[in-house]
Amino acid sequence: MRYVSTRGQAPVRDFSSVLLAGLAEDGGLYLPETWPVLTAEDWRALRGLPYPELAARIIAPYAEGSISFDVLLRLCREAYASFDHAAIVPLTQLEDGLFVQELFHGPTLAFKDMAMQLLGRLFDHVLEQRDEHVTIVGATSGDTGSAAIEACRGRARLKVVILHPEGRTSDVQRRQMTTVLEPNVTNLAVQGTFDDCQDLVKAMFADAPFRQDMRLSAVNSINWARIAAQIPYYVYAALALGAPDREVSFAVPTGNFGNVLAAWAARRMGLPIRALCVGSNRNDILTRFLHDNDMSVHGVVPSLSPSMDIQVSSNFERLLFELLNRDAAACARIMTGFRQTGRMDVPDAVWRQAAGLFHGLALDDEATKTEIRHLNDASLYLADPHSAIGIAAGRMFREPGIPMVAMATAHPAKFPDAMEQATGTRPALPKRLGDLFDRPERYEVVPARLEAVEDKVRAAVLKNFA
Ligand SMILES: *Cc1c(COP(=O)(O)O)cnc(C)c1O
């Protein structure tokens, strides 16, 4: 499979190169040159497969020419062996026609593990083939950092350095990162804000000699392999509920548009998906777009669902490119205009197509707590604030006879304060994290200055860990 950039000015690449490159050189995002399409017979043949095998079969056409099916199957089995639920992505019924699929049974209790656990192993495999090493660098306000660290810990070809703002993440979030003691993991507590951390990471990537010497790389949410690894659970749920002989709809709590884009990709592959519902908090750029074609950037408002506190949804560019019938020049023009003006000028015909397939619902914190309370009372279900928003969107747009599956993206124990406000009790951490507060931590405090941070990264990369 070959990959093209949404802006048309970057080299065409294979899966492995796209995996390592992340963003394309022209600022665009990579997409497969053609979409693999399955027939009804093909879908039926996938029914009943264990999740890791289903995942390998769905991802295989995207990795064709780079990674063999046997290797992919082994990596998928290893990736999901660390999950603490036998079904990996269990489905639960909440109401008539309304289901929830839990994506949070991985090591960090959030859906990022679904893709990251595979991504770390894919990186290691490709780097070994090429006899190369890379240093994964990232900034985190909490969740993405721990998923990246869990994905990279102990991998021979990877070093990982994560910057977090000192004293500004929750204790659970910090400890999920700093109690990982493998020598290839470095946590830097930056004396500054999350924005400082992000700026420092950008500055390191912009320092070309440093970037090359340290072989910097990223695993952020625009990496195509992350999207590919998120397609299989939509297939798993749809097959369980009657596809391809019955349509299914999905509801997804959305930030960067990565998770719901994977659902769109499953639909593009021929899975009979009727509607895609996008849930947001007060940072509702997507809902405003779907309602009024108003894709304009507002300031970020902190909410009970911090992983959806976003200004722009970077993966939306992939959908835009597709809805423009892959007109890369038009896509580049629209994205450049968006960057300059803060408002995306989406052609009316494109907006109509998007609004015909996607539905948006935004809930503020009060409505989110009401939804959490309702689910707890009416269905004995404990949903974290992100998942509750997705479920509310699913209920809102459910149609008779068509199962609606809402994606649960985080374990409620990750958000004990919000859960206590909504239900009166604090959920316990699952067994695997029960001793989190007894584990030793390791991190280094560093001033928010580029030279200081680069020194720490250099030391981490050159450290000889025999
Ligand atoms: C990352 C995240 C989301 C948003 O997913 P996108 O792919 O960015 O849309 C939603 N919920 C949780 C808990 C997350 O960690």
UniProtKB/TrEMBL annotation:
One of its GO terms (biological process) is threonine biosynthetic process. InterPro entries: Ser/Thr_deHydtase_PyrdxlP-BS, Thr_synth_N, Thr_synth_N_sf, Thr_synthase-like, Threonine_Synthase, TrpB-like_PALP, TrpB-like_PALP_sf. It is an enzyme of class 4 (lyase). Pathway: Amino-acid biosynthesis; L-threonine biosynthesis; L-threonine from L-aspartate: step 5/5. Its EC number is 4.2.3.1. It comes from the Bacteria. Keywords: Amino-acid biosynthesis, Lyase, Pyridoxal phosphate, Threonine biosynthesis. Pfam families: PALP (PF00291), THR4_C (PF24857), Thr_synth_N (PF14821). Residues 96-328 form the Tryptophan synthase beta chain-like PALP domain. The modification N6-(pyridoxal phosphate)lysine is found at K112. The keyword Amino-acid biosynthesis applies. Belongs to the threonine synthase family. This is Threonine synthase.
